[in-house]
Fold:
Amino acid sequence: MKCTVLMPVYNAGAVLPMAIESILGQDEPDFEFLIFDDGSTDDSAGVIRRYAASDARIRPIFHGRNAGVPATLNEGLAAARSDLVVKMDQDDAALPKRIGTQVKFLRERPEVAVAGSFVYHMGRRPADDRLVRLPVEHEEIARALDRENCIYHPSVIVRRDAILSLGGYRKEFRNSEDYDLWLRVAKVYRLANIPEPLLRYRLSVHGESLGRKWHQVRYARMALIASRHPEWSLDRVRGEAGVELERIGKSWFLEDVARGTIRELIGLRLYGDALRILWSYSRQLEPKRTIGLIREFRVELMRGGFRGAGKQVDQ
Structure:
């Protein structure tokens, strides 16, 4: 067995079969596939059981109640039978050569503990996907991490023992548990992004809210502050994050997030999703900001019809 694929699932709905099939259809077939149903209330568990019945590589685990992402990932790392663990999300699609490419990369680069990759933002059709380029080698990744997360969590392959040696994922940084982990890994091991797209990444709009985005940025700031000041208590880290976010300004930040999300969805020709986000976000913004957002939505929508597909994005 060359690696373990680890995928947590919670209420994945209709997108789960695509994610599972993208792993089962890999060019490299020698792996185990750990799928955790984390207390779903839809038919996710039934979908997992059906696939597990037809493919022996799948090892399903079912939670009676929702444990959350950090706890489920730590459980998966502990249960993995391989030291190389590929992280997969329930609503993305791995490209066919993903596993083979990543396993080969870590075998050739023993100093690397975490390797992500370039990704495609998933468009309405594959022709509408947008390529996202990321920092590649450890030094440039470490510099970028001091500002923002530049490794897509569902694109990574990790060395299990290295991650467990650092204590795994920390629940105190939920919604940014991956960013917190990369910051800790960077101090001890080396990071990389393979400079080719190995994953189609879905921009999720279901259940998204500006309130959740604000919580995410809070935990991201906490992760960065904790990395810079490991001697600080969690309460002090949380307090300093609050002070920094006060300087940013919540209204400005949320408007900027809404604008960027809508622009990206239109660029991917996901016009219905863009409209749903506009409707959802506009109800959470101040009226004057909502008017500007609606105006920009119209402009972007007109531009979107004339844009070419496959535009590249550098981060």
User: Anything to note?
Assistant: The two ends are 34 Å apart (CA to CA). The first strand starts at residue 3 and ends at 9.
